[in-house]
Write a structure and sequence with these properties.
There is one protein chain. The chain is α+β, with helices and mostly antiparallel strands. Helices cover 23% and strands 31% of the residues. The strands form six sheets. Strands 1, 2, 3, 4, 5, 6, 7, 8, 9, 10 and 11 form an eleven-stranded mixed β-sheet that branches. Strands 17-22-21 form a three-stranded antiparallel β-sheet. The longest helix has 17 residues.
């Protein structure tokens, strides 16, 4: 096997990206040390492996290349499969491998045409459920708007493929022609704020009957009416969602572990777990943990994120909940899935079934937007 120093490498930060494309880091949740990649409909395959420091090893056609960064197929735009842990993930765009700063793994960035990204994100966000042509188009506009608003959110790339930004899982079984159509039929359309810039908007799986502005929940810019009732006299539009109403149990030992891991504070003895500041729509902003030495206050986002990483995201589906104590455990009774801001996917689907156009759906969930 012949060993070469990289003949094909690039400076990641200096890649010119057109306004119509966007850079997405993918698969970093798995912290890959090695993976395989190939262009679809070709037999050529390469292997990528993290080596040491900021170097990766590329093996292709019996040649080994040691480099810091690498463009697959010389940066050609195409449809590629990346194989990791026995699974294949398909992405359309330009695929780049590199070692992320301060990380010892093989990072992957896909530079995608915006409309290809919107279609792929629809695949990930919907996962084949709550799909209707009009609600799909409404979500396509929301996805595109969020992407434009949050360019360079991660510095050297724009967005990640997780719910921290927008889901892009690359699973081939979830790819749908209807999502490509929804992106195409709304191509270039975004929601704008009063200054004519991409609006600061959000969407979630299920709002639990009340959708509210990001400004309410995170005390930031408030682009829409404070709270939108996601329903009518006959009931809430999202009431068929699995997490429309939910009940979960968390243990005192789990709370202690989360607080210690996230804040470095050790809690001993009995505790009480309480909600603090709450938004007008019912989103808990602050968690309070009372113990023998006092009360610890923690941002609800921080607690739920740390708890989800350790014990599973579905165990606290949203921040809309009340708490009651049962022995040494705590019972959370809640509503909805996700942050409950902006467009509600389950509610938008119900509105589409009632005959709402995608424009009507967007006006319903973002009523403060300029015409």
């Amino acid at each position: 096997m012949r060993v070469l120093l990289s003949a094909v490498f690039f400076l990641l930060l200096s890649i010119p990206v057109s306004a119509e494309s966007i850079k997405i880091r993918v698969l970093n949740i798995y912290h890959p040390k090695s993976l395989e990649a190939l262009q679809l409909n070709t037999a050529e395959k390469i292997k990528v492996r993290y080596v040491k420091g900021d170097n990766i090893e590329i093996i292709s056609n019996n040649e080994k290349i040691i480099t810091k960064q690498y463009l697959l197929n010389s940066g050609s735009y195409g449809e590629y499969e990346i194989r990791l842990n026995g699974k294949g993930y398909i992405y359309k765009g330009k695929v780049m491998f590199f070692v992320p700063p301060a990380e010892k793994e093989a990072g992957v960035i896909v530079e995608m045409d915006m409309e290809d990204y919107v279609a792929a994100s629809l695949d990930g966000e919907l996962e084949g459920v709550y799909s209707h042509p009009e609600s799909d188009k409404a979500l396509a506009v929301a996805i595109r708007t969020y992407a434009e608003k949050n360019r360079q959110r991660h510095g050297y790339y724009d967005l990640c493929d997780l719910t921290h930004c927008q889901r892009l899982n690359g699973r081939p079984e979830l790819k749908k022609q209807s999502n490509i159509k929804a992106a195409f039929e709304t191509r270039g359309i975004i929601l704008k704020d009063k200054q004519g810039k991409p609006a600061d908007i959000y969407f979630s799986g299920c709002c639990g009957g009340k959708s509210e502005s990001a400004g309410n929940v995170w005390r930031g810019e408030n682009n829409i009416k404070s709270v939108v009732r996601c329903g009518s006299a006959s009931g809430d539009f999202c009431e068929k969602h699995i997490f429309y109403r939910w009940e979960k149990k968390i243990k005192a030992s789990e709370i202690r572990s989360v607080v210690k891991g996230s804040m470095g504070e050790r809690i001993s003895g009995s505790i009480d777990f309480m909600t603090g500041d709450t938004s007008p729509g019912g989103n808990v902003r602050v968690i309070k943990i009372k113990h023998k030495k006092g009360i610890i206050e923690m941002a609800a986002d921080r607690f739920i994120s740390a708890y989800g990483k350790k014990y599973g995201w579905a165990n606290i589906p949203s921040r809309k909940f009340t708490v009651t104590k049962k022995g040494s455990d705590f019972i959370l009774k809640g509503q909805g899935a996700g942050h409950g801001c902006g467009l509600c996917l389950a509610g938008a689907y119900a509105l589409a079934l009632k005959g709402f156009s995608y424009q009507d759906i967007l006006k319903f969930y973002y009523p403060g937007m300029p015409e």
